[in-house]
Specification:
Blueprint: E1 11-15, H1 20-31, E2 35-40, H2 43-49, H3 51-54, E3 60-64, H4 70-83, E4 89-92, H5 115-143, E5 146-151, H6 164-184, E6 189-196, H7 207-220, H8 229-240, E7 251-254
Parallel strand pairs: 1-2, 1-4, 2-3, 4-5, 5-6, 6-7
Helix pairs in contact: 1-8, 4-5, 5-6
C-alpha cells in the first residue's frame, strides 16, 4: 500500500452509520487501518454495523445519538472521549428525504410540505453536521489536527420537483463545508464533502426490488451500474488520509455520471 493512503493508528467516528452508505463507509475506513466508532439513532443498528469494522481486525465502538439534538450530540462527544478516545476523523453521514411540494399542486404530486416537515428535513440533512462540528471541533482545534467528511448529494445545480427541502438542506451543507474548511484551515483541520449518486441498499430492499433497481440504474447511469457503498468508502479513505493532505473545502461527487444528464 502507498503509505499516504493508510489510516493505521487513527480513530474515526461515523455519525449516522447504522445502515446504508455510512455503514459501508465505516467498514472501508476499518479496512484501511482505522479504529471506527459508529453512532446511530438506535444503539442496535450501531452495534450491528460494527461487524464490518471488527471483520478487519479493528477496534469498534457503538454509540447512540440523535444527531439533530444538541444535548444528545454533546453527550456523544463526552462518551466518545471517555470510551473511545480522541478521534482523528469525523464523518457526518445523516440524511433523509421527503418528496412533497411546498403547497398542494393541482396536477400533483400529492401532499404539501408543512413547516414541521421542512424543519425536520433541514435538520436531518444539514443541522446534524453543524452539531457534529460544534461537538468535536473544539478538540480538533486544540490538537490542531483532524479531518471532517460530510456526506451530501450529487445534485448540485439542478432543480427537482417536490425536493426543495432535501436539496436546500444538502446545498446548505455544501456551503457549510466550504465555510468551515476556511475557518478551520489555520488549525490544520481539513473539511470536505462527498456527494453520492443513487446507492440502493440490499438490507432495506427485497431481492426483487434490489434487482429491479440495479436494472433501472444500469440504463440511467452513464457508467452503466448502480452505486456501491464501497465506492463512497474508498473516496472517504482518500479524503481522511495523508494522500489528501492538500485538499480541503471540496465537494467531490461519486455518482457514475448521473449529475451530467
Amino acid at each position: 500500500m502507498i503509505k499516504e493512503f493508510s489510516l493505521e493508528g487513527r480513530r474515526a467516528l461515523c455519525i449516522g452509520a447504522g445502515r446504508g452508505i455510512g455503514k459501508g463507509l465505516a467498514a472501508v475506513l476499518a479496512e484501511a487501518g482505522a479504529d471506527v466508532g459508529i453512532a446511530s439513532l438506535t444503539l442496535a443498528n450501531a452495534e450491528k454495523a460494527l461487524d464490518g469494522v471488527t471483520a478487519h481486525g479493528r477496534v469498534g465502538k457503538a454509540f447512540q445519538v440523535d444527531a439533530t439534538n444538541e444535548d444528545s450530540m454533546m453527550r456523544l462527544a463526552a462518551d466518545v472521549s471517555t470510551q473511545f478516545g480522541d478521534i482523528d476523523i469525523l464523518v457526518n453521514c445523516v440524511g433523509d428525504s421527503l418528496r412533497r411540494p411546498i403547497v398542494r399542486l393541482p396536477d400533483g404530486p400529492d401532499g404539501e410540505m408543512t413547516l414541521a416537515d421542512w424543519q425536520s428535513i433541514m435538520d436531518i440533512n444539514m443541522t446534524h453536521a453543524f452539531l457534529g462540528c460544534r461537538a468535536f471541533g473544539p478538540r480538533f482545534i486544540e490538537r490542531r489536527s483532524g479531518t471532517v467528511i460530510n456526506i451530501t448529494t450529487y445534485v448540485l445545480n439542478r432543480a427537482r420537483v417536490a425536493s426543495s427541502a432535501y436539496d436546500s438542506g444538502k446545498q446548505a451543507l455544501n456551503q457549510f463545508t466550504r465555510d468551515i474548511a476556511l475557518e478551520w484551515a489555520p488549525y490544520g483541520i481539513r473539511v470536505n464533502a462527498i456527494g453520492p449518486g443513487t446507492y440502493p441498499d440490499p438490507e432495506q430492499r427485497s431481492p426483487e426490488n434490489m434487482e429491479k433497481s440495479i436494472r433501472d440504474l444500469s440504463e440511467r447511469v452513464p457508467l452503466g451500474r448502480e452505486g456501491r457503498f464501497r465506492d463512497v468508502g474508498l473516496l472517504a479513505v482518500y479524503l481522511a488520509s495523508d494522500a489528501a493532505a492538500y485538499v480541503t473545502g471540496q465537494v467531490l461527487i461519486v455518482d457514475g455520471g448521473m449529475g451530467l444528464v
